[in-house]
Design a protein that fits this description.
304 residues; alpha/beta; 3 domains; 11 helices; 43% helix
Amino acid sequence: MIDLSIIIVSYNTKKLLLDCLRSVDRDLKNSSLTAEVIVVDNGSRDGSREFLGRDCHSARRRIAMTVILNEENLGFGGANNLGAKRARGRYLLFLNPDTEVKSGALTKMVRFMDENPEAGIASCRLVNPDGSFQPQGGYLPRLSTVAVWALFLDDLPILREILPSYQNRSGKSGRSGEFGWVGGTAMAVRRQAWEQLGGFDEKIFMYGEDVEICYRANKQGWRVMINPDAEIVHVGKASGGSWVAGEVRGLLYIFKKHKRGWEMPALKVILAAGMGLRWLIFGILAGNETLRRAYAEAFRVARR
């Protein structure tokens, strides 16, 4: 069994994918890791399929690469599950194509998992293209943690230090880098945990599948952690707010699947209030038309 299987799902991200593969190739150049890359194309129409079938040899000089070409978009979870079925690694690293692996990051991630056998899932330090810190992860979704995030309580000077928030924007964690959940941008999963959990929930098309699998991992006794020594650049939410409604849908699904029935109406009230506040502050008062539309859609999703 090899050390690491890197699974990348791509949908109309040809240029980003090429840059990502080159960064993986560079990082493995001086590494002793045994690794493979599995790229799953989700029915792209931007030339990615032709690139993967013919032109990517220069990007994989040091890595064995498997390419899976889907005829349709299976979503994030479905495509990653498909890639994982072909994986041979002790660890599976689910990596977004809009990332750049910094020097030594892959080795550090594998070493971290080796040194923390209780960790079923782990991520790394994410940074923006300008080098600034990019928050990710947070506490597991509960009515209280979602309310702290949705109602901006984690922005208040004193409360943000004592109230656990669904979205951790400070970078602070629990003991030894422990989080409730981490993002799927760069998510390493121990094979034993992956097989026990059964992969991502494919009923979530996109946004929330990372939170949901971390929720199940916690229930099974696995720790979810972040290794701050490994660093990966993430272009980020470059879609101008289109992720917002998806995130709300993901939370609604998680509560429907895992929580008690009475919690759903309360969650909808909290989310509707939070999205309404964001619509007013960022969309109307700040005059951002893109965010106005995004939060208006998220508000409608929360009210359904």
